[in-house]
Amino acid sequence: MGSTKIGPFLEDKTILVTGATGFLAKILVEKILRIQPNVKKLFLLLRASDTKSARIRFKDEILEAELFNVLREKLGAELNNLIEEKVFPVAGDVSFEEFGIENMEMKDEMFQEIDTIIHSAASTRFDERYDIAMETNVQGAVNVLKFAKRCAKLKILVHVSTAYVCGEGELGVIPEKSFRLGETLNKDLYLDIDVEKKVIEDKLKELGAQNLTSKEVTMAMRDLGIQRATLHGWPNTYSFTKAMGEMLLGHLKESLQLVIIRPTIITSTYKEPFPGWIEGVKTVDSFFLAYGKGISNVFLGDPNTNVDLIPGDMVVNSILAAIVAHGNIESSQKFIYHISSSKRNPIKLVNIPLFLLHYFTKNPWIDKDGNIIKVKEITTFNSMDSLRTYISRYYWPLLKILELANLLSWYYLIDGTYQNLKKKIDRAIRLSELYRPYLIFLGSFDDSNADWLRLAIKECNMDDVLNFDPRCINWEDYFTNIHLPGVMKRLA
Length: 492
Prior knowledge:
Layout lengths: L13 E5 L4 H13 L5 E6 L4 H13 L5 H7 L2 H9 E5 L12 H10 L2 E4 L10 H20 L6 E5 L11 E3 L18 H16 L5 H19 L4 H16 L5 E6 L1 E3 L17 H8 L5 E3 L8 E3 H15 L7 E6 L12 H11 L16 E3 L2 H11 L1 H13 L6 H25 L3 E3 L2 H12 L15 H16 L2
Parallel strand pairs: 1-2, 1-4, 2-3, 4-5, 5-7, 6-13, 7-11, 8-10, 9-12
Helix pairs in contact: 1-11, 6-9, 7-8, 8-9, 11-16, 12-17, 13-15, 14-15
């Protein structure tokens, strides 16, 4: 793909990317360098102590990733020159005002030259400590907005959120609409973000007075996040804090042009730079790995749920498409795009166990002792109650027998069998509880705005370069020939 096909927009532009070591940001950086080497500058914000450390982290965690193999093969020795000329790692953290950047010369240069900001930094753990999630997903969004307002040439701020700010969703189509400040999914309450910050402050003081271990404090702060999210109607700390971040951006943006990208469950790359690249265990992959390794064949999920998946390279294409479509528009509106598949090309959860059984039967996992793991058919439950009933009926009695046998044999004979079974039970329950909102989800995501964006890109003759239309995906082929091989190669 030549740089001419991307058009003149990205050429000679200066872009800031936050969360540069993240999964999406890496795909984004690679794509820009591959299709538009005439970009002026890429400032990449990384957590590091200084510029030298940021450069080392960029090299070790980004540039040397397998993802960049295609670019390395394409440019050869010229890649180093391109990186040296175009890419500027910046030591900083979105949790701090002005990202805590200590290099004043670089910061002034950023204020003067940046015209596009892509904010992808986030804490994505569903049960993250509430204080950390608040700092990154809420205050971090505000700090990015403040920084954007100081950039003299800024045309657009793209904020990467999640479609699941909607909460657990309802039967029907979920619109691409924004939040009002203070809006809550529990209609009986008002969400005061300052009160939430005070709750965190008070809890940390309380825990600090109890002489607890760091692990105990972490667990308490994770529990607090879930409690506050549940109180206001969200299923987990991640979606709750991302919603608060969106609220503040919308409330404080003033005349700045803001685009919010809301992807659903992000999976491995569909095509670019090659199929099946993934990094870090994503939502559904925890189940896939547990099944393939013989740890669990118990699956929570309503068969009628649309498991809304979207490949990572399509999400990146949507981000770039938004920049192309909106970057030169003078507008104070806020644009929201669901980057999803459930409306245009839905896949029902009932199909996924079939894909898994087919794949792992043909491609069994080999354990560390060289033994083939034979998978069984998946047993699916449509509620946590039915899952717990099944476990208590078929597994807890056996676990109790093994526990008694261990006591009688002084844990000498079958402790390993007991521990392995307990591990399987605990893992099945933990994963099911954590991902229940996404596996029992009967809504689908409206993507009318996103379809308008696809049409806008098509009119620019760039729909092949920036394709994010899920209708082109054959889900069975994607699972068996792209995603699952990528997961087992890179994550197992």
